[in-house]
Amino acid sequence: MSGEGLTVRDLRVTFDGFTAVDGVDLDIRPGDLRFLIGPNGAGKTTLVDAVTGLVKATGSVRFGDQDLLGRPVQKIARLGIGRTFQTATVFEELTVVQNLDIAAGAGRGIWTMLRRRKDVPEPVARALETIGLSDLRDRPAGVLAHGQKQWLEIGMLLVQDVRLLLLDEPVAGMSHDEREATGELLRRVSEDRTVVVIEHDMDFMRAYARSVSVLHAGKVLSEGSVAEVQADAKVQEVYLGRASEPEPTPRPAPAAAAASVAEEA
Ligand SMILES: Nc1ncnc2c1ncn2[C@@H]1O[C@H](COP(=O)(O)OP(=O)(O)OP(=O)(O)O)[C@@H](O)[C@H]1O
What we know:
The protein is α/β, with parallel strands linked by helices. It is built from eleven helices and ten strands.
């Protein structure tokens, strides 16, 4: 495995006196496929927001030999750091290949990018292959299935030569087959890049994580392999302790996650 790793030290994010990320340390080695899990409100998305420059933070965040904290969002993106959000943000009216072409940018004019072409640039062709959308390259992105849109979005990061991908719940709302295909895609992508996945789906996490960090109340509660995290009594307590609370959003409930985390412990 190759690529750069992500090192986070004493990361803190505060919103009007409320500390959402409270002294987080992370060492994510090059080529890792790290899952960030934890109950709703644990600080997972805020942590990723801090790494990508969307919220102000203190502490230190390094990717390879580059300091990220305090740099503007665009500069961080230019250092090879890209993210997806829970809702895919593709251009629905444009074709798959046009979406990739625009993401690749590469100094071409807009009309060149929008023209339908037989030959696509090599990085775009490679991304199409990696995300499994070669056959659908000339379809408008708007007609793609939910899972395919997420893969296209990952492809849009690949053509930008992103070397650290931060993905926010990439399999939410996907079918079983789409989840499997996404897991395999993440494995391929992480062969020569570093991948961080925020996830609530514990089955998916167990099947594909190379390492796991559990966040709770803004802190790292536990870290290690899937087996180590599942065996950690603190993790079981946090999930099981919330089992009777109502779930505010229609995603897999902490109760289900708790059962799933604890199941093999
Ligand atoms: N812009 C903001 N202003 C104030 N509070 C915020 C802001 N963004 C997040 N928070 C709070 O910070 C805490 C952490 O939120 P965050 O979205 O990072 O959690 P999460 O672990 O990603 O949760 P989920 O799994 O539900 O997405 C929550 O209590 C949330 O309400």
